[in-house]
Each structure stands twice: as C-alpha cells, then as structure tokens.
Amino acid sequence: FEKAMFGGYDMAAVQNYQEEVATELANAQKEVAVLKGKMKVLVDKIEEYRASEDAMRLAILSAQKVGKQIEDDAQARADKILGEAKNTSDRILGGLQHETANEEAKLLNAKNVLRKISGRCA
C-alpha cells in the first residue's frame, strides 16, 4: 500500500485491496460449495455402488446355495434310482437263478427217467 500524507495508508488502495480479497474469498467459498456438492454426488454414487455390490454378493451366495441344493437333490435322486435298479436286478437275477435251478433239476430228472427207460428196453 502506498503511504498517505499523514503517516497512514492510502484509504482507496486499502479499500481496493479489501474488495479484491472479498471477491477472492467469495469465489473460493463458491468453489468450496460447488466441490462439496460434487463430493456429495460422488459419495452418494459410492453408496449406491456399495448397495449394488452387496445385493450382487447376496444374489451370488443365494445362487450358490440353490445350485448346491439342486446338486444334492440330484445326487439323492440318482442314488435312489440306482438303489431301486439294483434291488430290481437282484430280484430278477434271484428269480432267474431259482428258475434255472428248477429247470436243471427237471433236466436231471428227465435224464434219469430216460436212463431207466433205456435200461429196461435193452
């Protein structure tokens, strides 16, 4: 500042400086307000993304649980079907073995009868 004639500062220069400082302060306050608004928008977006991320994480966990349940159910059904098929095949095989034993006994009996008849005829 320039000195005034009576040992002080030039009032016009001081007032000009005060106006410049006030203008710069007002501009800085406006910029701070704009930046705070932008920051709030960004914070809101981050929260929105976090909520989406949490929802996706829950959906993935749910899908994994459902997939595991489906897999377990399918394995249980497959085991049941295989068990029933084995029981059925064992039952059929047992019946065939019994029938084979009966037929072999009949064949042996028929051979014995045939020998007896052949022995009488000779």
From TrEMBL:
Any Pfam family the entry gives: DivIVA
Keywords of this entry: Coiled coil
Stored InterPro entries: DivIVA_fam
Coiled-coil zones: 18-45
Keyword field contains Ion transport: no
Transmembrane parts of this sequence: none
Protein name as catalogued: DivIVA domain protein
